[in-house]
Write a structure and sequence with these properties.
heterodimer; A: Rossmann fold; 6-stranded mixed β-sheet; 16 helices; B: 2 strands; disordered C terminus
Chain lengths: 516, 368
């Protein structure tokens, strides 16, 4: 097809792309994950694959590294057609992938992990040699890591470095990084970008995958935008803007949101001295928190620093070992989810399907899940409520009786919010709204809508608490924010007065108690 | 390398008629498979199947006998369905049936004499339900509070129940045993007032109406009451139940006890409708285990359970009747074999109705 002897799609005539995919198609049952996708990355360049969740980014990367084989189309390596039957074969040809989920053996050291399963490695390995090379690679590419450290003792950011070192050690010239920043603090993101720069300077080709526009603009030379499995555009970063990329991602113009001022009033949610112990570990440690009516407070932090137990303790799903939670002046500590609800709480948990919604039940029954039920269940009201929600929230569903499991992430989040935010602004409605990762996994349109709802909740006098690992989400939504680190508030303050450096350090656990 | 491979892909376009067609096709496939074995036996499969149908579903006595067997199958089918649909695998309806019979016959022997039939039979049924629930209690408790596999516990309790029942009649001079049956131990007959009335000169009894009433009651409970709602939630997701403040353990206990009670009712209707005594040999028919087949074929739908129970009841009934028929001498095992084959094909059919089998090319010419 478009293939020339020099290789397909290079931006430099006469020099083939480091790796290219031409018209590749990949189908999964019921899903066209990649539809005639063209993609290439040149030597010494960073080429980003940008797209919303489910756009097909990981699938494309998996075909480039040999994890999946394309149903149709062809992969070219330095201009020559190749068939990669496995990631191992890909790596042997110089293609290394760092997955969203790391594949390291926790009990082994860094150096051991680096050589583990390397087919080129001699049978007998000189540990000192490996360690020396790991150190040298680390130095060269700005990946400081102790080769003798055990993986189990490393932070997520450090583990990611190990994965990158592992690929470089095995001679990867093309590196595929699948959403590498999702697990990093802002400072770690900066460090990663420096590594990327060092790698391209040495002639590596980098495929960077992301759905965050800011990062993409900062790190890449070119961007290929995907939507629903197809490429919607390929542009040089220098010739584009965030707004333009967002439009390519969503397929229509995107509103720029505005933040309105509001004067918060009395405290509706108060958490004092909260301790939660899980598996013998204090996951929430003496936490104090207050949320007033008419404000949105955001909780940020790297995953696993106590966000989940905090939310669940407020909602009454788990018992704290010390401290208290009160909602609208009522003490609901360890009184169960019904008591918390009765006091005025609406809670949107992090797992929508499976916790917030019952997968096997109809939307009507899901609407009834957190409602008071008599001996007999009365569905007619709930059904009418679902019908209204389908119109108001633009929920895509076959009917009110469809099982919740059939809905996409965005639509199930809408159903959940419709139920939890019903009667907002009335004395019967929720006074305190706790939402975990409100827009995670949503497309830009649905995310906008959900943000609008949370703003409306604030406008109507509810106290809103947002808990999310996505720092941008917290920063864009909240009036005040706090950063959790190891179950404690590391820094806290009005969102517009906290610098990104301050937040980043707090997330990494560097700063001690901020202005709490 | 083989250039093709088979692959199962999830069907996304399941139509409602799949759920009707699948069991029907499984039955047909099972009959086809059974035909092979019948042919090996030197029997004419078509002839046997026609006889089977004729014996069970054409004349008055055939039909009423099939319905009589269907009565306990409806109840054990419900017992399995109520638990299975919540992923609680109570496979011990067999043992719960025995305990239902023990409790039921005890109540009949102890209290029914002189009472109006409706009260006498009512007591037998009530005691039977209690007996079945009692036999499910250990399994329910350990499942709810310690997560112990109910598959193991209910199965083990079935054997304990079986030997306990046999001991009461064959191994001891218990309250249940007829003192006049020294050489050939038998259960004491319950009084008339503890027996379902028969329909005319057939063996069919009012237990059928009772079983149908239970079907409706179970359906209403699951579909329209709060406890049924809670069961649906817990069956689909424990995390959701916890989130909504639904007590998971209590609901699991309730479901398993209810399942046990339904199994116990099957034993009680057998006592009140057919055996009239604690009759170990007459009760040890695998009715509880067959309930699992009934529930699976009926996809846990209470009304479909009735249809399947009648069908399998007929099959069982014919198996016995055919053996006695002059001429062919069809072994009684034929009906049991068919029953097993139907279950296997039903499970297989389920997989194909949820998935699509496709042939995919695995190699491809390099396109340049
Ligand atoms: N192994 C798989 N089996 C079935 N469907 C899959 C598989 N991997 C991905 N998909 C589907 O393919 C689509 C694209 O997924 P993916 O490439 O992971 O998207 P992204 O990485 O852009 O979020 C999604 O609809 C996803 O559900
Ligand atoms: Mg992905």
């Amino acid at each position: 097809m478009t293939a020339s002897p020099a290789g397909p799609g290079s931006d430099h005539p006469g020099r083939p792309a480091a790796i290219a995919a031409v018209q590749v198609t990949k189908r999964f049952p019921g899903v066209l994950a990649n539809d005639k996708v063209d993609f290439h990355v040149d030597v010494g360049e960073v080429h980003t694959i940008l797209g919303e969740n489910g756009a097909g980014k990981s699938t494309l990367a998996a075909m480039l590294c040999g994890l999946y084989q394309p149903d149709e189309g062809q992969i070219f390596l330095s201009g020559a057609p190749v068939r990669l039957r496995s990631p191992r074969e890909g790596l042997a040809k110089g293609i290394g992938m760092v997955h969203q989920h790391f594949r390291l053996v926790e009990r082994f050291t860094v150096a051991e992990n680096v050589v583990l399963g390397d087919p080129q490695q001699a049978r007998f390995i000189k540990a000192t040699e490996v360690e020396a090379r790991v150190g040298e690679i680390g130095e060269r590419f700005g990946l400081p890591i102790n080769p003798r450290a055990r993986i189990a003792d490393l932070t997520v950011g450090q583990r990611q470095r190990v994965e990158i070192v592992k690929m470089l050690y095995r001679g990867a010239d093309v590196l595929l990084l699948d959403e590498p920043t999702a697990v990093l603090t802002p400072n770690e993101v900066d460090a990663l970008f420096q590594t990327v720069e060092a790698m391209t300077a040495e002639g590596k080709a980098i495929v960077f995958i992301s759905h965050k526009l800011g990062e993409v603009m900062a790190v890449s030379d070119r961007v290929t935008v995907m939507r629903a499995g197809a490429v919607t555009g390929e542009v040089a970063t220098a010739d584009t803007s965030q707004r333009h990329l967002a439009e390519l991602m969503v397929g229509r113009p995107v509103e720029v949101e505005t933040r309105r001022g509001q004067s918060p009033s009395d405290v509706a949610l108060s958490v004092q001295g909260l301790d939660v112990v899980e598996d013998g570990q204090k996951v929430v440690d003496g936490l104090d928190l207050e949320v007033r009516r008419g404000e949105i407070v955001g909780i940020a932090g790297v995953a696993g620093n106590g966000q989940r137990p905090l939310a669940r303790a407020i909602a009454g799903m788990i018992k704290p070992s010390a401290g208290s939670v009160s909602i609208c002046g009522k003490d609901v500590t360890a009184k169960g989810t019904k008591a918390a609800r009765k006091a005025g709480l609406a809670f949107v948990p992090e797992d929508r399907l499976g916790t917030g919604l019952v997968p096997g039940l109809s939307l009507t029954d899901n609407m009834l899940l957190t409602r008071k039920r008599g001996f007999f269940v009365n569905r007619s009201e709930a059904r009418a409520e679902v019908e209204t929600a389908i119109v108001d929230y633009e929920i895509k569903t076959p009917s009110t009786e469809a099982q919740a499991r059939l809905l996409s992430g965005g639509n199930s989040q809408k159903v959940l919010l419709a139920r939890e935010l019903a009667n907002l602004g009335t004395p019967d409605g929720p006074q305190v709204v706790v939402v975990s990762s409100p827009t995670r996994g949503l497309d830009i349109g649905a995310a906008e809508f959900v943000r609008g709802l949370l703003h409306e909740a604030r406008e109507r006098g509810a106290a809103v608490l947002i808990i999310s690992e996505d720092l941008e989400e917290v920063r864009s939504l909240s009036d005040r924010m706090a950063v959790l680190y190891r179950g404690r508030v590391a820094v806290e303050g009005p969102t517009d007065q906290l610098s990104i450096e301050q937040i980043g350090l707090a997330m990494a656990g560097v700063a001690e108690e901020g202005a709490a | 390398m083989i250039p093709f491979q088979f692959r199962l892909e999830r069907r996304l376009d399941r139509k409602w008629w799949h759920s009707v067609l699948t069991p029907l096709l499984s039955v047909l496939a099972a009959l086809a498979a059974g035909a092979v074995f019948l042919a090996i036996e030197g029997l004419n499969p078509i002839r046997v199947y026609l006889d089977l149908f004729e014996v069970s579903f054409t004349d008055k006595f055939g039909i009423t006998d099939s319905l009589t067997v269907a009565v306990p199958l409806i109840l054990t089918g419900l017992a399995a369905a109520v638990a299975f649909r919540m992923n609680l695998f109570n496979i011990g309806a067999e043992g719960q049936l025995y305990l239902g019979a023990i409790f039921g016959s005890w109540a009949g022997l102890q209290f029914a004499d002189g009472l109006p039939t409706i009260v006498g039979v009512g007591l037998v049924l009530l005691a039977g339900a209690v007996g079945g629930a009692f036999w499910a209690l250990p399994a329910a408790f350990f499942k709810a509070y310690f997560g112990t596999s109910e598959i193991i516990t209910t199965l083990m309790l079935t054997f304990i129940g079986l030997f306990f029942m046999r001991y009461l009649i064959f191994g001891s001079k218990s309250f249940w045993r007829d003192p006049d049956s020294a050489n050939f131990p038998q259960g004491k007959k319950v009084p008339e007032s503890a027996r379902f009335e028969l329909w005319g000169n057939t063996r069919l009894h009012w237990g059928l109406i009772f079983a149908l009433a239970v079907v409706v009651a179970v359906w209403v409970l699951i579909r329209y009451t709060s406890i049924g709602f809670d069961m649906n939630v817990v069956g689909s997701s424990h995390a959701s139940a916890q989130y909504a403040g639904i007590p998971v353990r209590r609901t699991v206990m309730f479901a398993l006890l209810m399942s046990g009670a339904l199994g116990g009712l099957a034993g009680a209707t057998e006592v009140a409708g057919r055996a009239y005594a604690l009759d170990p040999n007459g009760l040890q028919l695998g009715l509880g285990f067959t309930g699992i087949v009934v529930a699976s074929l009926a996809r846990y739908n209470p009304f479909a359970i009735v249809l399947v129970a009648v069908f399998l009841g007929g099959l069982r009934n014919a198996g016995i009747a055919l053996q006695g028929l002059p001429g062919e001498r069809v072994p009684v095992e034929v009906s049991l074999m068919l029953q097993g084959a139907i279950l296997l094909f039903a499970i297989g059919g389920e997989i194909f109705s949820h998935n699509r089998l496709s042939l995919v090319r695995t190699t491809k010419a390099v396109a340049t």
